[in-house]
Amino acid sequence: MASKHYTSFSLVFLAAATILLAGHAHGTKDLCQGFEHESVCRTLVQGLSDPHEALKPAIHQLIIEGRRALMLANNQKKNTFLDGCKENFSFAIEDLQACLRVLKNGHLNVLQKGDLLNSLSAVVSFYESCNDTYLEAATMNPSIKNPFGKIQTVLNPMISTVLALATQLP
User: Fold this and answer.
1) Angle between helices 149-166 and 110-140 (to 10 degrees)
2) Which of 12, 54, 65, 155 could pair covalently with 45 via S-S, beta carbons 3.0-4.6 A apart?
3) Which domains does the chain have, with CATH numbers?
4) Using H for helix, E for strand and C for coil, what is the string for the chain?
5) Is the confidence at residue 18, as pLDDT, over 90?
6) How far apart are CA 166 and CA 55, in angstroms?
7) Could you report the per-residue pLDDT of 29-77, keeping only the tens digit for each?
8) Spatial contact of 145 and 38, defined as CB atoms under 8 Å apart
9) Phi-psi region for residue 109, left (φ > 0), alpha (ψ -120 to 50) or beta?
10) How far is residue 98's CA from residue 78's CA, in Å, rounded to a whole number?
11) Are 52 and 169 in contact (CB under 8 A)?
12) Please, which residues have CB within 8 angstroms of residue 48's CB and are 6 or more apart in sequence?
């Protein structure tokens, strides 16, 4: 009777160990481990472990947030800084859409990876440029407030996470 319990325990242990080891053998890894914004990364990659596949939903989400920023810009009272922000948000969305087109082609060669990283870096610049414009204006006139401050607290960690994911591409 005791040997039956040991046998069934051994089989359960063996099955559990096999499942765990099989996951590691297939190269499952935590793409977000060590990222500055780990929780943002986990939300964006949706449990995917391949950086190429994980970038697609991450970039889609970034496009959605970029469109929200553009809608916010379109609903603002016109001022001298707004047109530049609208243009930057539009350029950012275009670059992100171009990134998705590059990713659809499958695994990237060195040149395509470089183009992807350049486009993502440009998106960072587009978002920061709008923020910087309002920060500079506020130093001259404290009554000027950045209407995009809240959405940029969402966009900035997202784009830095997407850029970090892209650096993991083979």
Assistant:
1) 160
2) 54
3) 38-168 (1.20.140.40)
4) CHHHHHHHHHHHHHHHHHHHHHHHHCCCCCCCCCCCCHHHHHHHHCCCCCHHHHHHHHHHHHHHHHHHHHHHHHCCCCCCCHHHHHHHHHHHHHHHHHHHHHHHCCCCCHHHHHHHHHHHHHHHHHHHHHHHHHHHHHHHCCCCCCCCHHHHHHHHHHHHHHHHHHCCCC
5) no
6) 7
7) 788 888 899 999 999 998 999 999 999 999 999 999 999 999 999 998 8
8) no
9) beta
10) 29
11) yes
12) 31, 54, 57
Q: Which two tokens stand for residue 156?
A: 């900035």
Q: Hey, what amino acid is at 141?
A: N
Report the 10 Å Cβ neighbour count for 139: 8
| Cα 53 to Cα 69, 101, 107, 124, distances in angstroms | 25, 13, 10, 21
Give me the count of residues in the chain.
Answer: 170
Select from 128, 97, 102 the least CA-distant residue to 115: 102
Taking phi first (over 0 means left), then psi (-120 to 50 degrees means alpha), and beta for anything else, what does residue 33 get?
Answer: beta
Q: How much is the pLDDT for 23?
A: 38
Q: What is the pTM of this model?
A: 0.78
